[in-house]
């Protein structure tokens, strides 16, 4: 029984395999809509930060808004994963895009009418965070319904390149240039237009034709599924300690980058909006190049050691942000951080696929996403007020050095060096 579209067309094995999914209409519409949404999210990161700065030039205000975004995402990510398994994925994706459009349009209209307030931005951020929690599980689940199995790797590769390029590079850069030349409300209008086009493309897709199947009376209860996932993680040291490291890493690193970096750019550069966008763009470019570089070679023999080194030593350049007013140094530092982040993520994704049993992969991946981001809203919430009593230099010094110490503890506690030798993947 086929659940895909247009699979009666023969799939050629020659040429660039990464282009094979584009032969299918539904995928073309879907990835175009997703790319526009990712681009819009990249612009929104700059629009949100600079709009808050225009309303209230206070890191605490941006902490509040960013915290609402993170809290919405973290609070609903497990719900989103369950919904993707039990509700039509196309309907979820269309609903999410419609919600994104309404939220950003409201910000745009209020901004143009000079009625926008910080609490409006906080509510919009929370709504966008909740929407994101439902979008990504649904997108992952819909791909096997519209593509043959042999094209899934190519489709995931396309999304893996599109995301850092559009969300972390092109989107922030264009957003910074646009707002630098105009004003934040116009940036919100542009983001809303991108979401509207994406919504139109998603509505144009056809529902997947899935053959009716008998209900499974033995289907496990949702809570039992989650409990089994937790038990597996707790019983797998390399997995448990990597997730613990990632949680504290997010707590220490993400807040300074997302909340304080916009203020640093605004204070140290004459054209702060444009420079902030370009700094984020270097991160995106580095992340994409890091992912492509690692995926072009065989998995490292010492894969756990290399992965942890990428994430920990790769964070050291964060120290630069506390001490320099040189855009060139900031750009290089951001590129290095992005490169190591992207490279580490490729290794991590491969480890989950190769060392986690297939029957547990969905639950473990959901828990990975949840646990890794659990401290994101906390990081956003505390770094703004903290910056009033602790210098920027100290905050970024800790953000750059702490991951190295944390990684060393995690590797020792989990016995990662012994584990990777005992479980070769080459």
TrEMBL record:
Signal peptide: none annotated. Keywords: Cell membrane, Membrane, Transmembrane, Transmembrane helix, Transport. Residues 21-418 form the Major facilitator superfamily (MFS) profile domain. Pfam families: MFS_1 (PF07690). CDD domains: MFS_MefA_like (cd06173). The keyword Phosphoprotein does not apply. Its main location: membrane. It is found in: Cell membrane. It is a multi-pass membrane protein. The chain crosses the membrane at residues 29-50, 62-84, 91-112, 118-144, 189-208, 229-255, 275-294, 303-323, 329-352, 364-383, 395-416. SUPFAM superfamilies: MFS general substrate transporter (SSF103473). InterPro entries: Drug_antiport, MFS, MFS_dom, MFS_trans_sf. PANTHER family: INTEGRAL MEMBRANE EFFLUX PROTEIN-RELATED, STAPHYLOFERRIN A TRANSPORTER. This is Tetracycline efflux MFS transporter Tet(V). It comes from Mycobacterium deserti. The lineage of its organism: Bacteria, Bacillati, Actinomycetota, Actinomycetes, Mycobacteriales.
